[in-house]
Amino acid sequence: MARISARVGGIAESATLAVDAKARALKAAGRDVIGFGAGEPDFPTPPAIVAAAERACAEPKMHHYTPTAGLPELRAAVAAATLRNSGLRLEPSQVLVTNGGKQAVYEAFATLLDPGDEVLLPAPYWTTYPEAIRLAGGVPVPVVADASTGYLVSTEQLEAARTERTKALLYCSPSNPTGAVYPPDQAEALARWAVSAGVWVVSDEIYEHLVYDGASAPSLPVLVPELADTCLIVNGVAKTYAMTGWRVGWLLGPADAIAAATNMQSHLCSNVANVSQVAALAAISGDLSAAAEMRAAFDRRRRTMTRMLAEIPGVSCPEPKGAFYCYPSVRGLLDRPLRGHLPASSLELAEIALEEVDVAVVPGEAFGTPGYFRLSYALGDDDLIEGVSRLAKLFGEAG
Known about the structure:
By secondary structure, the protein is α/β, with parallel strands linked by helices. The protein has two domains: 6-44 and 290-395, Aspartate Aminotransferase, domain 1; 47-285, 3-Layer(aba) Sandwich (Aspartate Aminotransferase, domain 2), CATH 3.40.640.10. Helices cover 41% and strands 13% of the residues. The chain contains 14 helices and twelve strands. The strands form three sheets. Strands 2-8-7-6-5-3-4 form a seven-stranded mixed beta sheet, with helices on both faces. It has a three-stranded antiparallel beta sheet with strand order 9-12-11.
């Protein structure tokens, strides 16, 4: 009998967290490592949010279990914020507060999938999506898009990949890892396809406020109201309010699906930490001024990183329209001599970058598309310029 279950033993470690952990360990050992791996804002959580949490710490009622689905006032505030931000009208009963968006992703698939059900997974994809699908007994079916289409999949591709086992489509716009944003007409076409195909949509809207150059990321059930009964939405406070460590996300959708997910969560973790929930309530009940300041900084860094990457021979980088990632192709650098190495993959090239110039990036293998790097520009301007400059110098030596 195996010591570890095949289900858990077959799950891959989060590549983004692994890269970040290695960068931190090397820094602790004294190396001047610049890490482009972690997908989190480099800003502190706004003071008013922290103050709300401090007050909650002193409230005895926050020292005990609270409702599994979340504090009633937070669920109501999430519904109100969703209406304000996207135009989607929900009842508080359609809101489940989770331990970060990552738990919401897992619970969405665990609620929908039976063993063998397939999920269409546009690639490049965030590293957690396929593992969450597999943990739920499902089968991820990658649908690959490249830079020629702006990393956007078409309804024709989805239809070609659909089988009688297809249960859901994963949709993420703005995208992690590419920063791609579906224009409203293409987003509407995908939503209408899902309705006509009888396929659920799990829509990750965690980067909804991080869009640039006039781009917009409308919520699919707003574009196509008929989808509302077969759409689960993932969101949270992590990216918009610089609250990655507070671990508060939410799952939105039809009342019966949310009730089922809530039942599962009652056995999984009881409830999200109350102090974090109060902090999240303060965040979404306030204005978006702090988020606007962060977005302005990300926009500046986005343009700087894209320009610098485009100047490196062998590298090409579409300009992202959302989130805080660039996703350049490095295929032009493969199989070329570089400081005694002959990198045959983006994974090997990323290892060389870390060892030779102390720059940590996440290779495209982690996102289902080898030959690319993901670089987060959610780090200080000086570090960003220094890190990309190191890469430019190193890759300029490729034979």
